[in-house]
Design brief:
Four copies of one chain form a homotetramer.
Chain A lengths: L1 E6 L4 H10 L5 E7 L8 H4 L11 E2 L3 H5 L3 E4 L6 H10 L3 E4 L9 H8 L13 E2 L2 H9 L3 E3 L3 H15 L8 E7 L14 H4 L4 E2 L7 H13 L5 E7 L6 E8 L7 H12 L5 E3 L17 E6 L6 E8 L3 H15 L16
Parallel strand pairs in A: 1-2, 1-4, 2-3, 4-5, 5-7, 6-7, 8-10, 12-13
Antiparallel strand pairs in A: 8-11, 9-10, 11-14, 13-14
Helix pairs in contact in A: 1-11, 6-11, 7-9
Chain lengths: 346, 346, 346, 346
């Protein structure tokens, strides 16, 4: 049994980690911290977990956290970087579910996140935790930056195309839609039921923090900068992200069937990517509660624009599930341990 | 490994059985039938199950079904009774998730279900599959009538009170609320998103088929008829039933704390009933996707009316989960096998 | 043209007042106040009102408010009572949409609202603004307490029965369900989309502030105290209240048809109460956006318990619409002016 | 008073016409037809209209319809064309809310709608009923093809750009999202609450019938064919369409401010198009129940891709409201009569 701790356990990614780890056969959650809820039982805050944990929330001290083999930071941006050096020095591995270590370019990070980076010396050694790209590096990493939810859905839809040089990388459109849980459990007017239900809107069209993450990672795959227009939207649902990605084919003669084949081969050894048959339309509910990313390819009217549909559960493959996947890799466990979740549908 | 078959697998209880059985360590689903979808792969109808089953839907012939150790009927009322005699004769056990064997009084059944009973000779040997009442009988049963969703929630909230003679059984009010999945997957205007979402209503106030089931079972517990006013309502959500039950205390001096104790003792050996602390308000989402019934007790203003809150997932504890529980008992497996499901919340 | 002002215009009742008054032919909104949003244009906070108002939010000074013929307080409890004496003295009429003047018994009020009453000397002259009871008194009132949303739905369902002495007033059950807008526009975790959507629960079962209001008003109608068990529930929808009221008939021989007749006669001169045909099930969406209360009567199985279904839009008949109705009466306008709203369905 | 009739009044566009016409000061609905519901009162099918109409549904005979000054066809595709010649001959004007007369190219129409056109001789005289393009032609038309919902939102977002030659018309992306009411009131599994709620998906990516309509109309504006990739998505909400349109600027030097100005001038005399301030994000709820199209312009990161956001209520500006607008024009009434609707929000 390995021990893990969760810092910032009162948000949606925190409770989702608890849900997943409750059935993980080789993990014991030894601590869960929350300054605001310290002293309260987990099951009082989350009745869905009654009977699953005896834990109470505690203060996030280094002593507490250093007892764990691995610590998850399910905290706001800027928190993990403060405790990372000391924890790593104590031999504890770290997965940050926030953005502190997602972007290698420190200047870019500071620009988008509006603060100085408090731990820039460790950014270079952080591994970007997308197992479909960095599985081997993650296995030997001590510090993993868990990807953003939108970047996960978008990259999985684009990587085979970029790696094979099939599309015009100057003009990619990623029209993305997220459930409201992506905004977190903080009490804000915009996330109220009466503000978000039965309505639809775009937001942050001028620029969203996941854009530089997408661009940096795709540039790595491409070996050169890529041009992406990324527009997020808010869907009146709880969980789920759907990315609709538009890309121009470099060669009109490339058949859709051959691209389908490329996707199937690219992901055949990755248990959490499902390349659906041609003509499919993945629904977010078909991945609800699971760690799966379902992808489908289209080429409307046989014209030159490829449409890639990519659906994940933002709290699982887009956050806590991918973090557990990374944890399995970092701790030497079979990668799918505890993650064979059947989606809840309807 | 035991083999089971599912008749009528295209409805919501059918797919929920498939979801649960996909992770059951000792069960193999050997057949799933549907006249309308015969020949199609399960994963084509239910993309959420892609990668879980190789099965295709088949015709529900006796030959196919008799290969199973146990057959689930997830069919409309009136279907199971037609194949039951032949299947039982072949040594296959049966769980009917519909209403064919829920009511012992044949006349009452015919009145409420509007048809002659096609298999009345077997009704007496059918066991009513509420494990919290009939666990031992279920273990030795060949034919189990899986309870209705409303009756499950209402009975679990009332049984300790009736068994202990604490309430006025002449005047019980069961105000119940169900998610739309209770209406099934049939294409009907009333279940359309645009008809049911963002609205609330009562229905079938004049009389709902679950009323005679509730009354017969409570009368068995009481040893005499009981008076129940049962009003179902439609909630704009997918899963969940919440029963708010009102009962008058026989003795005003009975303390709420003593009643709480009675509930805790009554259910202490039943793994799927959670008696919450006094003052709790169970939410349906706290049991979403799980087989748990959460109950909380209130006595507003210290007056003579007891309010019992009871929440289940109608597709799990109210249907497929309870059926798997019954299956475990009937097949000699530990009763919670495959049912340790952590609720999906949010 | 009469002038009105709205204090506390950033909540849901405030914007609903603006929606209704935008098309009122004889009303000009001369001021809308909000300390937090002072200086911002109404249309910036509420894009749905773009093009309807040139107003900006201002500070709620007496000078500003005293220019109006009538002031609406769409504020938290305890605010209206502070400005009421001075405004009344200046000749301005007042409608308080909060609870400051809803309960005549000051002690009861202080107990339930947890504060001293700052204006107890004016409570006795406040008229309870349920036009179906107090139409004439409202016409000559200077200070009207706009009823709570639950009390409106419950009283309209019970008044004819109590006035005619038809039911056992010792044991009434009011099982009520509200959309999330009833919780207001304040940023609280419990009202988040991810907390309230796709779930259902009871709340405040131990005691809700609308209980003493219901009991005081029904006692007035009855001429003696009444016993009511009131349980509110949260429905995953935006607008709407549905009350399911259970009452025992005093005389089993009273026919449902005769009760139907009594309801029809009782409300025949009240334009906003719709007594539906026997057997109906009012849906909240059938009153969405309108000032109508729809009522239907049932007597399940012909037994002794009457079930009354009552549906309103909590923001209209349960708040802003009833306030405009009261305003019309107080200002000598035809009572339905500006309130002939066709419900939005689907 | 002018008389109108509605053919096919049981669908969502039919009831929406009834909602709007109930308050139209110069229109009397003299007949509403439905083969399936003939004989039933409108208020029995639509309780939201109780007290508004005395009408019952009747058979759609020519005699009945010819009494009207104008007939709305709120019918499935292929119905209006059968009665159009006879009705026009009798002097009755016609607005078809379905697709029979939306596309001038008969071959294209037959290809996409999968049937022979039964009235091709009248297509050329039909006016495409987008008042922001064809206001004058509509005034003198006898036969108007009411635009599709998606085409309305997309065209209004693109027309000023195409008319001014500002964008690359070879590669436009229209990523569109619709509420479920767009699928109509027919009983289909895909529109069930349990299938569509709390989920998101694309559909008909290979080709949707609104694509040829969009392309034909944009080609008319451009004077040459345009290239559009159109992907519709299903949003778990009742009403609303949101189009997110991506277009490449021909001249990078064109400032966003100048484009904003072009939009403002283009629509300044059209009462139902609201060009929002730069940086806005129109929500569909901000137009719920109203005839308004809200548009906002963005140019993310100052790069070469323009993002146009366009939101309408699919049942109003996307169907019944636009039809009433066309009716006003055809009958010589002020164009906004009966359409000054304040959106319902929240």
């Amino acid at each position: 049994m390995k021990k893990v701790a969760i810092v910032g356990g009162t948000g949606y990614t925190g409770v989702e980690l608890l849900r997943l780890l409750a059935r993980h056969p080789q993990i014991e959650v030894c601590a869960i911290t929350s300054r605001s809820e310290a002293g309260k039982a987990v099951s009082d805050i989350y009745p869905s977990l009654r009977g699953e944990y005896d834990l109470a929330f505690t203060e996030p001290t280094i002593q507490t956290l250093a007892q764990a083999d691995l610590v998850f930071f399910a905290t706001p941006n800027g928190v993990a970087m403060k405790q990372t050096p000391e924890l790593l020095a104590s031999g504890t591995k770290i997965i940050d579910l926030a953005a502190d270590f997602r972007i290698q370019n420190i200047e870019t990070w500071s620009h988008w996140y509006g603060m100085e980076h408090g731990c820039s010396q460790l950014v270079a050694q952080a591994v970007y935790g997308l197992p479909e790209v960095n599985r081997e590096a993650i296995k030997s990493a001590n510090l993993v930056a868990n990807p953003g939810c939108y970047p996960t859905a978008v990259q999985l839809g684009l990587l085979p195309l970029i790696e094979q040089g099939l599309i015009d990388t100057d003009y990619i459109v990623a029209d993305c839609k997220s459930g409201v849980s992506g905004a977190g459990r903080g009490a804000s007017v915009g996330s109220l039921m009466c503000e978000a239900a039965d309505s639809f809107k775009a937001y942050s069209v001028a620029g969203h923090r996941h854009l530089p993450e997408i661009k940096e990672q795709l540039a790595l795959a491409h070996g050169a900068p890529v041009g992406v227009t990324f527009v997020p939207h808010l869907v009146p649902m709880i969980r789920g992200i759907h990315a609709t990605v538009y890309a121009r084919l470099n060669e009109p003669s490339t058949s859709l069937e051959s691209i389908q084949k490329i996707f199937e081969i690219r992901y055949q050894n990755y248990p959490f990517v499902d390349v659906m048959p041609l003509g499919s339309h993945p629904e977010t509910r078909s991945v609800r509660g699971s760690n799966i990313c379902r992808i489908a390819l289209h080429r409307p009217q046989g014209e030159n624009t490829l449409v890639i549909l990519s659906a994940i559960d933002n709290l699982v493959k887009g956050a806590a599930g991918q973090a557990v996947h990374n944890m399995n890799l970092m701790l030497g466990l079979p990668e799918a341990t505890g993650l064979k979740l059947v989606p809840l549908s309807p």
